[in-house]
Amino acid sequence: MELPPAVENTVSTLARSGIKSVIWRLTSSSKIVNLTVLLLVILVLMGLFGWSWLKHRQYNQAVASEATGQVAYEQRRWTEAEAQWLESLARYRFLGNREDMVRLSDRLGSFYASQNNLPRAIEMYLQSLEWYKASNNQAEMAKQYANLGSLYAVSRQFSYAEVMFVNSLGVYQALANEEGMAKQYRNLGNLYYNYGALSRAVEMTLQSIQRYQALGLTEEVAKEYIKLGLIYTAAKQFTAAAQAYWQSIELYRPTGPPLEIAGLYENLGAVYVQAEEWSQAKVAYLKKLELDQQLGRLEEVAKGYNVLGSMYLKQGNIAAAKEMFLQNLTLTQTLVQQEEKNTQYSDVARQLGAEQTKQRQIEIANQCENLGKLYYVDGEWQLAAEMFSHSLQVNQGLARQEQVANQYGNLGSVYHKLGELSKAKEMLTKSLVIFETLNQPANADKVQALLRKI
Question: How far lies 165's CA from each of 133, 182, 299, in Å?
Answer without folding.
Answer: 16, 11, 40
